[in-house]
Amino acid sequence: MTLLAVRGLHAGYGQGDVLQGIDLEVAPGGVTSVLGANGAGKTTFLRAICGLVKRTGEIHFAGRRIDTLATEDIARLGIAHVPDGRGTFTSLTVEENLRLGAYVRRDPGVPRDMAQMYEYFPRLFERRTQQAGTLSGGEQQMLAISRALMSRPKLLVLDEPSFGLAPLVTQEIFRIMRNINETEKLAILIVEQNAQLALELSNHACVIETGSVVAQGTPDFLRTDEALRRAYLGY
Description:
25% strand; alpha/beta; 10 strands; 10 helices; 235 residues; single chain
C-alpha cells in the first residue's frame, strides 16, 4: 500500500527543469529520507509535491492525483510542509502560531492536540506567550513542526530540520520525531543534510544527484554500499 506515489516528476523555476523524472513512494506510517549534495534538487522535490513550483509528471496522494491541485488544496488533503528556514509567524506568540496551524479544522480536538504539542515539546509550553521571533533557532524549529502537526496531516514533509541547529538540539528534535512516527503512525518525508541521523529515522531512503534518483532502498542497503556511502552520505 502506498500513501504518496511520485512518477516521472519534472520540476523547476525557469526555462529548465531541476528535477529530471523522479520516481518515489512513501508508505503509510513510513519515513522516507531524501539525501544528496547541496543543489541536487531535494528542496525542489518537496516544493513540487506541495505545488510550490511548476511541475509535470504524476503525484498521487491517498489514492488521489494531486499534481493538478493548488497548494492550499494539497494541504487540506493532509500534507503538511515545514520549509527550510522554519517560516514561523515571528510577530505572533507560540500559541497563536499553533492555532493558525489548525485553521482548516472544524473538529473539537484542537485544544487536546495543542496540549499534545506541549507534551512533545515542553519548551514551547514554557514560552507559549512569547513572540515566535524571540525564540531560539531550535525552539522555532519545534514550533514550525508543531504548527504543521496541528493540521492533523497524513504526511509531514520536512526540509532540512537540522539546519543551523546545535547537535544536541538536533538529536532532541529527531528523537521526538521518531516518537511521533511510532506513536501516531504519521508518515514523514524528510530532506536532510545529516545523512546518518536521517537514515536512523527512516525505513526507506533515496539519493538525488543533479535532479535524478541515483539510488534508493532501505537504510541498511545504502549504508553497506561503501562507494555509495562515501560518495553521497558523507561518512
